[in-house]
What does this fold into?
Amino acid sequence: MELRAVRGMKDILPEQAARWQRLERTFRELVGRYGYGEVRTPLLEPTELFVREIGEDTDVVSKEMYSFERHEDSLTVRPEGTASAARAYVQHNVAGVEPVTRWFYIGPMFRAERPAKGRYRQFHQAGCELYGDVGPASDAEMIGMCAELVTALGVRDFVIHVNSIGSGPTRARYRDELTRFFEPHRAALSEDSQRRLATNPLRILDSKDPRDRELAATAPSVVDVLAEEDAKHFDGLRRHLDALAVPYHVDPRLVRGLDYYTRTLFELKITTGELGAQDALLGGGRYDDMIGNLGAKRPVPAIGFAMGIERILEVTAREEARIGPACYFAPMSEEATTRALLLAQNLRQSGHWCEVDGRGLSVKAMLRRADGLASRLAALLGADELATGTVTLKDLGRHEQERVPTTQLAEAVARRLAMPPLAAEEKAVDRG
Ligand code: AMP
It folds into this structure.
């Protein structure tokens, strides 16, 4: 029998891996500029950590965790990164050493969800956690950073939903409101939500069952029951977001699937529809109670987000230009080939990827190869170019060409590479 990868888990082969590396590099550099340093935690954690922090009634804990017993311990392959990072933060008493801490992580997460486009059983997240700052300025900074991040990764059409679910007392009040609202409609709810009505009515709001969704759409909004301090925090967040010119949309129905959140919640969604129901590229929020719950000497406020790497790569696949050589040399004689070898060597010393076509083929065949390699430029060297000490530099990304003295080739190449290539549709028009 042929053995295949586990359903919902994927291999990443070298061509794809190059895209992963580029994404990870962009992520590390960008969050590094905001002061985030990397934390690496084990893939296995005590099951208890997730049960306590994510919440027993969440889908993640109740049906999606890969948990097993070994030597009397109950272990779980991590379904997310926030609880593990918080466990490490408390275990190493980081709060005792520094008042504010910024951590990021990148790695695989495991949830036994029903596989679909954009939903896997092993998927990868890149996320950030900021400890020791109650916000709301830090909340706005993080949300702004997320917008900058997905833009840098090539995502164009997105919207950021924000909401506040308040702190402890607000949530208790909201739970009561929701129970009062849903109780008369109990029979119309899904079986899961009938159970949630007793244990955690907030979870009904993010149920995927159509029966629940219809009712949830008319449920009371949390914004109406926010305590004064929570409302002030949320106003502050919006003020800072406005000042930073971060576009956002207040979404009072946003609750998110994990129990640990307090106050600020946010989710960044793609608006092109290409991911169907799996339209969230990243999500996050504040979790001011977790560090205290995990046994820290004092409570420490915290906020974080996690971005789904597969989803980002899926929605940016079209946008991303294939990376090819900077310049492909097409010499038309033996003498021209010698010249081309020399010119290419010089260009490589300035850090450019160059290739010389030494096969003695027609210009047309050499240009076809340049196109196939996704080379940005092609340098043609014929008798005329040799006689005048020049090259004909064709910009394949912009459908332009110029005659350049060989002594100025490096400058011309650098200048061309700094110009954006035409978009695919402009090229099509250009080709007529
Ligand atoms: P969560 O940890 O559920 O808040 O998810 C944060 C982000 O991780 C989501 O917005 C998705 O981009 C991504 N994500 C969550 N679950 C999956 C999954 N099963 N497959 C792929 N990506 C996921």
About this structure: Residues 428-432 have pLDDT under 50 and may be disordered.
